[in-house]
Design a protein that fits this description.
The complex is a heterodimer. Chain A is α/β, with parallel strands linked by helices. Chain A contains five helices and ten strands; from the N terminus they run ββββαββαααβαβββ. In chain A, the strands form two sheets. In chain A, strands 1-10-9-4-8-7-6 form a seven-stranded mixed beta sheet, with helices on both faces. The two termini of chain A are about 20 Å apart. Chain B is an all-alpha fold. Chain B is about 80% helix and about 0% strand. In chain B, helix 2 crosses helix 3, helix 3 packs antiparallel against helix 7 and helix 4 crosses helix 5. The radius of gyration of chain B is 18 Å and the shape is elongated. The chains are: A alpha/beta, B mainly alpha. The interface between A and B is medium-sized, with 29 and 25 residues.
Chain lengths: ~240, ~240
């Protein structure tokens, strides 16, 4: 089956078009290789108790692709299934059907920071360094760089419950970046950032994209589309090139 | 192994940094051994049971360890589910997260058991200290399983802690020598551990059959807890 690709921002399509049910034969439009391919993803949830129990279909054949060196956006209304799609790709949620192929190391920044309130910033880095298999030297280098880059060095010894929402979000992002992933999944990573940090975030994302990282970012704002190489929109559970 | 210590140590710190936990670590054993034992004895007499005062005091130390361990295990799962799952998905794996959680739960269980044991010792003395220590630790291990299991399936802190209380109340007030009829007491998970403590309170040792049963139930409960911790942190194949 021949597939459409999502529209690149400099491409010929101007209006939204559906991406076909599978991205199997889709090719990376940029120089690089595919680091994420999602094909015909379906997911539904059961809500409520009988007799009010009902099935809610969230994803109904969503497909997308991310290549190395690409910054790809995923947009959609509230409840359209963006975070569900992300969680399935990461492996935190089971899918009903469809395929997910990932390549290399994955970094995930969830929409709501998933952190331990009583542990410090440094202790979070230590635990995630174990999960990523980083030795002490690599961990310390990565942590020092990220703390400086995101400007929250002074909070290293603070517990999460003592941090502001924006600083928690910085840690949430730093934990996804500390092992220099091949594929970075960001679910509204800048909520709570001040304007300066917000702008700096896009510089960080751009520099990592230029270094070859494949990035999929859930975004809400139309203005951000200019910063993205390609954009998918989730509409009625399916991906649409935006 | 060192990874397990690092992650498990982090999980222990997470629990002990709640100021209320530290207060309850002392207050609950004191309350149970000094006050709850009397209530338990009165309930036993009202229900036609034959629980002696010294045995009620001894068994209260076990209930203190059970209550604290069960509640802490419940909150270990329910309050950290998202972060644990993220850590597992980051590469640690649900199995190692669950192992670290069980190490943390056992360390906390051993701590609350030690506090309960000391309180009992100070209150009434103990005829067979080793028997009492093992029995109190068994209470803690059994309720680690109860708390973790409820935490894996009940997300709400209020609903979950009420369910832990419900299981605890049913278990405590239907235990051995609490009623004349026996009721559901023969099927409660803490039956054999309670028998050990009742015997210890009466200044007696315990038959080897009780030890075997206690070991089997305690190890079974820890296996249930491990499975519950794994279930809460599990990841899916992408």
């Amino acid at each position: 089956m021949t597939l459409d690709t999502a529209q690149r921002k400099d491409g010929p399509r101007s209006s939204a078009q559906p991406v076909s049910a599978t991205a199997r034969d889709e090719r990376c439009p940029a120089v690089g290789h595919c680091v994420l391919r999602v094909d015909g993803l379906e997911k539904s949830f059961h809500r409520g108790l009988p007799p009010r129990r009902r099935r809610v279909e969230v994803l109904r054949g969503a497909s997308l692709m991310v290549c190395s060196g690409e910054l790809v956006g995923l947009v959609g209304e509230n409840g359209s299934g963006k975070s569900t799609l992300m969680e399935i790709v990461v492996g935190m949620l089971a899918r009903d059907s469809g395929q997910v192929e990932r390549l290399g190391r994955i970094g995930y920044c969830p929409q709501v920071p998933m952190l331990w309130d009583k542990l410090t910033v440094d202790e979070h880095f230590t635990l995630f360094a174990r999960a990523y298999g980083l030795d002490d030297d690599r961990r310390e280098r990565a942590v020092a760089d990220l703390l400086a880059e995101l400007q929250f060095e002074r909070y290293r010894g603070y517990r999460i419950e003592e941090l502001s929402g924006g600083t928690r979000q910085k840690l949430n992002l730093a934990l996804a970046l500390m092992h220099e992933p091949t594929l970075l999944l960001l679910d509204e990573p800048y909520s709570g950032f001040d304007w300066e940090t917000y702008l700096h975030f896009w510089e960080m994302a751009g520099s990592r994209r230029d270094a070859g990282m494949g990035i999929l970012i859930v975004s809400h704002f139309l203005a951000e589309r200019e910063r993205l190489d390609r954009v998918y929109e989730l509409r009625d559970g399916r991906t649409v090139a935006a | 192994m060192s990874g397990l210590v690092v992650v498990g140590g982090g999980f222990v710190r997470e629990q002990l940094r709640a100021p209320l936990t530290l207060v309850l670590l002392v207050a609950i054993p004191a309350f149970f051994v000094l006050i709850f034992a009397g209530v338990l004895g009165e309930f036993s007499r009202a229900l036609g049971g034959t629980l002696p005062v010294r045995s009620a005091t001894a068994i209260s130390a076990g209930w203190a360890a059970a209550f604290l361990s069960g509640t802490l295990a419940f909150f270990q799962v329910s309050s950290s589910r998202g972060a644990d799952r993220r850590l597992a998905a980051a590469g640690l794996g649900a199995g190692r997260v669950a192992l670290a959680r069980i190490v943390a739960a056992l360390l906390l269980g051993a701590t609350v058991s030690a506090v309960a044991f000391t309180t009992l010792w100070l209150r009434s003395g103990i005829g067979h200290p080793l028997h009492a220590a093992v029995a109190i630790l068994a209470f803690a291990a059994i309720y680690i399983g109860v708390g973790a299991l409820l935490g894996a399936f009940v997300a709400g802190p209020l609903e979950g802690s009420l369910l832990v209380m419900l299981v605890f109340a049913l278990d405590a007030f239907s235990g051995p020598q609490m009623t004349s009829s026996g009721g559901i007491g023969a099927f409660t998970p803490t039956l054999h551990a309670a028998n050990l403590l009742i015997a210890t309170g009466g200044g007696q040792g315990s038959p080897s059959g009780d030890w075997t049963s206690v070991a089997a139930v305690a190890l079974g409960s820890l296996a249930v807890a491990l499975a519950a911790f794994w279930f809460a942190a599990r990841t899916r194949k992408a």
